[in-house]
Amino acid sequence: MATATELRTKAVNLMVSRKGMNSYTQGANRTYFFGKPDNKPGNTTQKGYSDCSSAVRAAIKAATGIDIGSNTSAQINNRTKKGIVVHITDGYFPDESKLLPGDCIYFKGNTSHPLDVGHVEMYIGNGK
User: Fold this and answer.
1) Could you tell me the pTM of the whole model?
2) What average pLDDT score do residues 60-83 get?
3) Backbone angles phi, psi at 121, to 5 degrees
4) N or C: which end of the chain has fewer CB within 10 A?
């Protein structure tokens, strides 16, 4: 059985493997994070599609089997069931000393979403 650190590393590696491979969409193609038409985790040959929330969802689900939710609202609403809030800041940047590779960082910017969140990214370590 994989350790938490190994699962985090796998999620980060899956996310990084798609750099420059995906086009932004909020349409039906956002389910093809790992490439269309195959959508196999680890695929680095096919163009994929995603928005911020579908990207972190796909990488985490492929690495861990945990479905964190299909959009930022669902992910924020699932935080008490499938994750924890490590740090909330009134400033612009989280406390990086509290972040681990694979953590999701949620940014405010949409008052119609829970906690006013409008964007999510995955922390991959080393300030990125």
Assistant:
1) 0.91
2) 87
3) -140, 160
4) N
